[in-house]
Design a protein that fits this description.
With 325 residues, the chain is mostly helical. The protein is built from 14 helices and two strands; from the N terminus they run ααβαααααααααααβα. α1 crosses α10 and α9 crosses α10. It is globular.
Length: 325
Amino acid sequence: MSTSKIEAASELEGPASAGKAPVGIRPNERARRMARRVALVTVVLPFLGVVGAMVLLWGHGVGWLELTLLAIMYAATITGIGVGFHRYITHRAFQTNNTVKTLLVILGSMAAEGPVLFWAATHRRHHSFSDREGDPHSPHLHDGGTLNALRGFWHAHTSWMLSPEMTMQEMGYYTPDLLRDPVIFKLNRLYFVWVLAGLALPAIVEGLILQTWAGVFYGFLWGGLVRIFLVHQASWSINSICHLYGSRPYQNRDQSSNNFLMALLSFGEGWHNNHHAFPSSAMHGLRWWEIDFSAYIIRTLEKLGLAWNVKRPALRAITEGRGRH
């Protein structure tokens, strides 16, 4: 992929426009402002939910039902991001049918990290420019010093989403294959429906179980807002922490690192140095002790006949690549 700066047209009308992004057209400023506002709400609202949950926790505690809904929704949506948005949609690490594809995209969208086309375009751009100028969320693009190091971390973790330079304007360049997929394109357009569904589902479940409006509220709070906040921190830490702290068995051209804790919290995405060494691999945990729940899910789908053409690096490549510059 060329590393030249290419700006796509301000609006993409449908799959037929894929790959036809003209050079030099200024992105739609109204679309940029709207995207920044949506990103701000996406960051702030779950945080306020966590603050409210902590206040209520002090006075009323939290029940097993709220924690169960939180755990189930966390596992489902982090799987939608790791297995769906990342390994399947962005890197084509395996193939599956339209039913599984739809489920994975819906679950990933419920994580509220942006529509699938924007997510995939951002990540493909990240791989093209990893830790260099053009990377949308590298922590290493600020000059030295403690203050700039903190600025770099904050940029990589959160503030890049509020940047005026939006990868969404370049989807025609980074994701022409996805724009030609009518299933993905339609699911992408319904992004806000899936986000609202992810908030409503735990609220409805707890409300029905407890038969109270308080149950609806607590389900919305813990299975919805608190869950989104925690999923965000786990996912965004791959951009920030996993480009700053951890081991680097493969000497890639960037600062991607393996981080055991982040791998646990993100269901395997924290084996980020491994991933940058073998981007199209469905397995990020390459050694027996590298726990990778997303890989286990893909293997299960494969055994059930619901995933095929699962990509794995050769054992020789895994072994010989370690420590090489």
